[in-house]
Design a protein that fits this description.
The protein is an alpha/beta fold. It has a single domain (3-294), classed as Alpha-Beta Barrel (TIM Barrel), CATH 3.20.20. The protein contains ten helices and twelve strands. The protein has helices at residues 8-11, 15-25, 45-58, 95-111, 130-150, 167-177, 188-193, 203-209, 240-249, 269-294; strands at residues 3-7, 29-32, 34-35, 38-39, 61-65, 117-119, 154-157, 182-186, 210-215, 217-220, 228-231, 255-258.
Amino acid sequence: MFRIGAINDELSPDLVRGLDLACELGVKDIEIHAVGEQSIEEIDDRTVEELQQLLAERGLRVCNVSSTAFLRCHLKDSPEVIQWKGSFRTTFGSYKDHLRYLQRALDIARTLDAPMVRVFAFWREGPTTDQVYDLAAERLQPAVDLAEKAGIPLVVENCPHTYFDWGSRAVQLVEMVNSPWLKLLWDPCTGVRSGEEDILSAYPRIIRQVAHVHAKDLRFEPENGRPHRYVPIGEGVVPWEQILSLLAKDGYEGAVALETHHLAPDGTKETAARAMHAGLSRIAQRISVEAKGQKP
């Protein structure tokens, strides 16, 4: 059975408060993305030690070091800096810079005893063509080599800002690289947001490659002047009951990490995270009860 996890800054922008909320919710698996104003791969050794102490004091384990390597990164080298308007903490720079960021993330993962490091697959600057697949697989190979040397696998996330926004696209890339050191971080909601008509069409391939899952939900609201709005799990259009039932049935035992991506009506991330956790927990409980009822 999968485990419910959470991304630290999706619980609260304050590191300590986010970790404390995880404990209140009974979450043991924490994905670390941002620490203060920095993405995880940017923090110094002293901050890593402080983070390690905070986690140990609370009995929390790191399920993923959520680096932003190769997000704000051109697939083809360019001196132009990729701009980012949101509050999401990211690194940026050249391809070589991102390889250095990744090495730092791997070093931090080793210190925190994390089982994997998240990466992306290059900023979208056009359609996802066969040439893009080939070049992305080639450009990821040095990253995979670093992961193998460190003994810590990478998980590539399907992300709406990259060429590999659909789960089906991201899993095809993972299959092309064909290495035990690169697996899939599946975000079904991102597939829905990005126009993937049937996010479960590639599920037989996804289940063979998935090592981590992100959980959020949305509604499309063009009538309100916006393409979509994030909502608590179970209140949107993402078929989470079906997704989680399939994962449980097929023996997925990794984390399903809450990624709130919105504020609650009271303006806080914390209230939104509580609602997200409640929605995911209700579905998980139903699946657990059904699974026990089916046992002989």
